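Students often ask what a holo structure prediction actually looks like on paper. The answer is less mysterious than it sounds. You provide the chain, you provide the ligand, and the output is a string of discrete structure tokens encoding the 3D arrangement of the protein together with iron/sulfur cluster.
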Amino acid sequence: MQAQYDMVIESDADSEPKTTGMKGSRKLFVKSFGCQMNVYDSQRMADTLAPEGYVETATPEDADLVILNTCHIREKAAEKVYSEIGRIRRVKEAAAAEGRRVLIAVAGCVAQAEGGEIIRRAPAVDLVVGSQNYHHLGALVARAERAGKVVDTQFPIEDKFAALPAPSLAATRARGVTAFVTVQEGCDKFCTFCVVPYTRGAETSRPVEKIVAEVERLAEAGVREVTLIGQNVNAYHGEGADGRPWSLARLLARVAEVPGIDRLRYTTSHPRDMDDDLIAAHRDLPQLMPQLHLPVQSGSDRILAAMNRRHTRADYLGLASRLRRARPDLALTSDFIVGFPGETEADFDATLSLAAEVGYSAAFSFKYSPRPGTPGAEMDEQVEDAMKSERLHRLQETIDRSQAAFNRGCLGRIFPVLFERPGRYDGQLVGRSPYLQAVQVRASSAMIGKIAAVTVTEIASNSLFGALAEADAQEPALAGAGA
Ligand code: SF4
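The corresponding structure tokens follow.
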């Protein structure tokens, strides 16, 4: 399961080609919901449509094609998509009144799960495309333009990634100095609360050489930090140059050799797939940042078994200790679900005590909500919503305390910060610490894309404030983090 957020794929109109190939310029607005996988997919959808003459725009009002790249993880996901479609339908009607045609496409996990039902409920939608089919977007959009409604949610035989065009250097540069690269898709774990195995299909891994080629291209465009992503990324087993399956640890070591890539991360991991080599990579690979998202979901063995997580509380705590022995400054983050069917007060206390024992630097926590078609939705002993809310509040207090303690420990320290973009105020930049905290610093925009030593001077709930440190003032312990 991935950490969730909403994102709009925005464009830098000055750095994008106005037209591509022989086709006239049309405008594309992609709204991405959910996890990093969807953000990556949204960018690749834009890449797929660029040869068709589509350039990205920041608002649906001037778009010729609107794609909603949906997520099915959160509660009432489908209802939220229908309400968003309602908003875009009004944009479509306004454009039609001016004699302009706007197509609406729904992509991603809700599209995969709902299929043609989306068009039945929302006739303004022209195209429904599943998460494994968007490499055909150009042809599907053309068919929708010609023939009306199109639905494609089959799991195809061919490799989607092999068919996707490489993004232009201009498009890659406009996306910034950090990038996601999907290396793995799908999941075979079948946690009883989760729709991913049904919407994304079985685990597949991209070949090593394709990933390395993509990372080399990103480095050429100025990317300094790459996050390898997958629904269950540490189950990676893609084919290496030797024709054998490579582990994620081996892939990370290979990607770390790409010149210009100073920082690596990976997400999202399952505790069962953290093997010895991957733990050792946290000790041995200086480019691998000391932060790991390792979802636990519950601290109760009884609930972990009901969730089909296939690990115990002791397994998880043992893993956290081994990781911290390998990399003592490792910051752990996690996902929690409270109020899973059958969760008692004792089960929940076990979750609270696990969260306190691990001492997370941050964590996402959610109330359990049944997903149609998953075993959890059919279970007896569903927990009342008021109880879920009350437990969620208590868990979040525990997480907030450990996050605040972690951030307090950063005060006065010197970190290598990768500057990513301008801050909210003139003369301010936002960068990331090795622990993935946002750090706001007064610095020249010429520093974007550079890694510099920053002294942390102030902490807020969601970010740190800092000042550029003297050139020779970097903490030796973090010197390997790509500065
Ligand atoms: S490991 Fe479990 S929670 Fe994560 S994607 Fe697979 S089924 Fe979903």
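The first helix runs from residue 36 to 49.
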